[in-house]
Request: fold
Amino acid sequence: MMMTEILAELVSVPSLPGTPNDRITDVICGRLDVPGVTLHRLATPEGRWNLLASIGPADLPGLMLSGHSDVVSTEGQEWDSDPFCLTEVEDRLVARGTSDMKGFLAAMLDLVPDLLQMPLKRPVHLAFSCDEEIGCRGVPHLIARLPELIARPAGCVVGEPSDLHPVRAHKGKQSVEIRLEGRPGHSSDPAQGVNAIYPAARLALEVENIAAAFAAMGPFDQGFTTPNSTLQAGVIQGGVAVNIIPEHARMLIEARTIPAQSPADVIARVSAALDHIGASAKAAGRPFRSTIEVLASYPALSPRGNEELAGLLSQITGQPIIQAVSYGTEAGLFAQAGIPSVVCGPGNISRAHRANEFIHPQELSACADMLRKIVSRNCL
Reply:
């Protein structure tokens, strides 16, 4: 089965996010660098690679199939086999990335010989992004290049694991790091220092209050299991010893938002609360400095405009549409660029990021069948 061979080759490369991805890029290009495929290697500012491969008339709106080539680390996990060697265990193909989401990439690459034989009236574009697992950092650079390379696609299928259920909406996310700097001193003389932990603690309480307001007053979107946007302080660190006034404190805060709210707008409320805390501290003669750095950010996927594509995928796969999920994908970024997008891929999200991640061979076959049919319905 050629698709299994492709998957074995893909998972053999530990393509971790935030690290050079030349090896996985070369593996994918080895399957795409053939006559009839227009292939673009697109560098990110960090020196990593996105890929765009097009087959058919690129000046017409066509269909985009998209997936990320990076995988999360296996560090600290106990695997029963080498996580970077595809191992067949009963009816499971086990390796890191089989479900999330090199299985879909294998199906995309397996489709290429068939696409080259099809009389395509509209193009098919295959997009491979980097650095998805650290906040969808790679794909915005790919999307920014699309207008100069191809006509805007009429639709995009992002193949994150969904058991081939078409997913129409998901939440957005923004995570930030906040650093606070006070003034150190000996704990026996508090007046000589400014304790950086105290404003961090006050900000954590403000984050709790903002989150509680969302839960109580919305806005709400009943398509989601948790129908409101959420906000939390996930990490707080500070101080070096019990007898030293802490000079530094650090917080990590995350917002996950329904399509009606922007993650940046929610974090702006946190920033306003920090400004108020800072003003009060300055008035009391206890000034501190602070910075906010965005670590990851991507928009929610709105269902607006993707009804037709989701309905067609449901007809093809026989799986009912899922209206909304709480995790995020790159689909929100494609939709933000004006490309109607749906999440639909093989495998189950519950297997992702875990030891002994796997996919069933029949899930790969079903995905390959879906891709051939969606191309036939859209591009012939």
